[in-house]
């Protein structure tokens, strides 16, 4: 949620005329994340999040916005996109696709406690159940093929030890067939900054713009890797036990998933190690751009290569 495309106050006022949101009270850019431009917008009719999509195109976006509407309509704590006065949920601002959603209450947590980890595991299982009735679909743009291509492109820019680690892991991943595991709509980016709380009460899940149809277990692995490891690659076992148990209470993994779990955790760690390396090697321009440390995910990957985290 960095700011790549600046929006002036007059541009915002002109843009908001197409929405039934009342008069503007204030707005500010959100300087977190790395993919889209986001602004908080306050009006006399509510609080909103305005997103300008920097990488996704118009053809991709109906899936994401439709998924959010589906989830919200079925009681899942997702913000539904706001429609314009003529019924559109996707418009244009400063040459970029743009959408408005109502801002959910709550804040993300940097150091989650056991109750918050447990609530997140449960809401992920709920997401997988509720999204099963959504008719749309999209391939994972950062799946196996992306990992292979990105690794190949990055190799000349990396130190020898990083190259050796990535090559070894890609070789090991040949034994993993994610598409043979149970599939469904996944969030694919359920990091701590994408879950909102009021105290220990989970109030919202945001940023569905990596959502796709993929392995359900892979989604759990992504979530565990972010929520249950510190920046030094050390596992908080109590937190991971709480999260996994709450997920299993919503959806029981299969025997094949249990067998594949360790490699799935490694695939999830490799995906974010590579994407952070990509942003590090090829930084993107923007007014407020936050580039995250790739070594945090290198350490998580190395943990999974040397130790086993049980699934349940």
UniProtKB/TrEMBL annotation:
EC number: 2.7.1.39
Keyword Nucleotide-binding: yes
Domain Aminoglycoside phosphotransferase span(s) in chain numbering: 28-242
Cytoplasm as UniProt keyword: no
GO MF annotations in UniProt: ATP binding; homoserine kinase activity
Annotated pathway: Amino-acid biosynthesis; L-threonine biosynthesis; L-threonine from L-aspartate: step 4/5
SUPFAM superfamilies: Protein kinase-like (PK-like)
Key words of the record: Amino-acid biosynthesis, ATP-binding, Kinase, Nucleotide-binding, Threonine biosynthesis, Transferase
Biological process per Gene Ontology, one example term: threonine biosynthetic process
Pfam family, one: APH
Catalyses which reaction(s): L-homoserine + ATP = O-phospho-L-homoserine + ADP + H(+)
Family: Belongs to the pseudomonas-type ThrB family.
Name of protein: Homoserine kinase
Annotated source species: Panacagrimonas perspica
Lineage, top ranks: Bacteria, Pseudomonadati, Pseudomonadota, Gammaproteobacteria, Nevskiales
UniProt gene name: thrB
């Amino acid at each position: 949620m960095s700011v790549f495309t600046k929006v002036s106050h007059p541009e915002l006022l002109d843009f908001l005329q197409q929405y039934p949101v009342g008069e503007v009270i204030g707005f500010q850019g959100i300087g977190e994340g790395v993919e889209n431009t986001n602004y908080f917008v306050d009006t006399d009719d509510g609080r909103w999040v305005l997103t300008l999509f920097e990488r996704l195109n118009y053809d991709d976006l109906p899936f994401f916005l439709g998924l959010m509407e589906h989830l919200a309509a079925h009681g899942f704590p997702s913000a539904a996109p706001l429609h314009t006065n003529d019924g559109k949920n996707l418009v244009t601002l400063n040459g970029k696709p743009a959408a408005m959603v109502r801002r959910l209450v709550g804040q993300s947590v940097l150091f989650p406690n056991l109750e918050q980890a447990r609530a997140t595991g449960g809401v992920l299982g709920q997401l997988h159940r509720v999204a099963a009735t959504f008719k749309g679909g999209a391939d994972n743009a950062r799946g196996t093929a992306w990992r292979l291509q990105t690794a190949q492109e990055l190799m000349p820019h990396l130190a020898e030890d990083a190259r050796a680690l990535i090559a070894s892991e890609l070789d090991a991943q040949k034994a993993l067939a994610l598409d043979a595991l149970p599939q469904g709509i996944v969030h694919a980016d359920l990091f701590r900054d994408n879950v909102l709380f009021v105290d220990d009460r989970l109030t919202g899940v945001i940023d569905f713009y990596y959502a796709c149809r993929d392995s359900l277990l892979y989604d759990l692995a992504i979530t565990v890797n972010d929520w249950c490891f510190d920046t030094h690659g050390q596992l908080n076992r109590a937190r991971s036990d709480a999260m996994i148990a709450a997920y299993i209470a919503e959806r029981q993994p299969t025997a094949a998933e249990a067998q594949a779990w360790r490699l799935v955790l490694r695939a999830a760690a490799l995906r974010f190690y590579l994407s952070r390396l990509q942003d590090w090697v090829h930084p993107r321009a923007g007014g407020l751009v936050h580039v995250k440390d790739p070594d945090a995910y290198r350490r998580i990957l190395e943990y999974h290569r040397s130790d086993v985290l049980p699934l349940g």
